[in-house]
Specification:
Blueprint lengths: L1 H5 L5 E2 L12 H8 L4 E2 L29 E2 L4 E4 L2 E4 L3 H6 L2 H13 L24 H8 L2 H14 L5 H9 L1
């Protein structure tokens, strides 16, 4: 249905809440079988909500013998731990200069940064859900500064789609 609406082939998938885990790697086979070229549902960190901290930090083929790729969310390796910095909660909570430094650090080793944002993270007028203190913090903290951070990133860096960057380099 989405392909009919946009008039183009859907080539990738991003599962909700980084939902591909060690227990659901079978999903890669389904995504490849239906003709998708890549998935971006792995966050190589570990927290109480999601994560696969031992997965590769940069693009890889999760299914041997295929041309299907996993494009994980960007992290920095700090004290032997993968730390997120480039979108969502991290975009909202971290100072802009740290996000910028993270992007530059990846670019300096020849890797692009995967930046992601949810529309709700730049909508300061959205209705607020009644959540417990932890979930309210995770969902809303820093929302007042995220639009400005995103605008600054767009002014300071060149961005491409996953398709136009990786598949131009891989084929």
């Amino acid at each position: 249905m989405l392909e009919d609406i946009i008039g183009k082939q859907v080539k990738g998938y991003r599962g909700p809440s980084w939902s591909i885990t060690n227990e659901s790697k079978w999903a890669w086979y389904v995504l490849a079988e239906i003709g998708l070229l890549y998935d971006s549902s792995i966050f190589p960190v570990k927290n109480y909500l999601y994560g696969m901290p031992d997965s590769p930090r940069f693009i890889y083929k999760p299914i041997y013998g295929t041309e299907f790729y996993e494009v994980p969310a960007s992290t920095l390796k700090i004290l032997h731990r993968n730390i997120g910095f480039s979108g969502g909660f991290f975009l909202r909570i971290l100072p802009y200069e740290l996000i910028k430094l993270g992007i530059m650090r990846l670019n300096n080793i020849g890797q692009p940064a995967i930046i992601y944002i949810h529309p709700r993270e730049i909508d300061v007028h959205q209705p607020r859900l009644k959540l417990n203190i932890r979930d309210s913090f995770v969902h809303y903290y820093g929302i007042n500064s995220s639009k400005e951070k995103l605008e600054n990133l767009l002014n300071e860096f060149t961005f491409l789609s996953i398709e136009s960057y990786y598949f131009a380099h891989l084929t």
